[in-house]
Here is the input.
Amino acid sequence: MSAASTETSAPLPTVGSRVFFQGAPGVGCVQGTGPISTGDDPVQRKQGKVTVKYDRKELRKRLVLEEWIIEQLSELYDCEEEEMPEVEIDIDDLLEVPSDDDRASKLQESLIDCYKPTEIFVRDLLGRIRGMRKLSAPSKKGL
Here is the structure.
């Protein structure tokens, strides 16, 4: 058996469900250091900081609302999400509009191509966003 075949048959190190690939000697990493621990991984630290800057409860509310919107639009347009026409409903933009009447008008403009009545959807959506806050992007200073 050649020396090259014994090197490649060595098991690759794994940590939990993560798999680390062993690079060629002298390429991209220092030989003998093994896999990078999650504590030293700068990408992991940045991801953690980003999630902390947003309020998780507010993010969860936003996700539930977006899923509800997709479900309602599927019913309004009688199709699955993949077949739905391009409809842009930006929650943050709606939250910037001062009155419910102006918000309703903006939503009606977005739903102009819908042949079904949209008044109930608009009323329900406005009720659901009442009290929500606009999500602000995290500052780039800490990244």
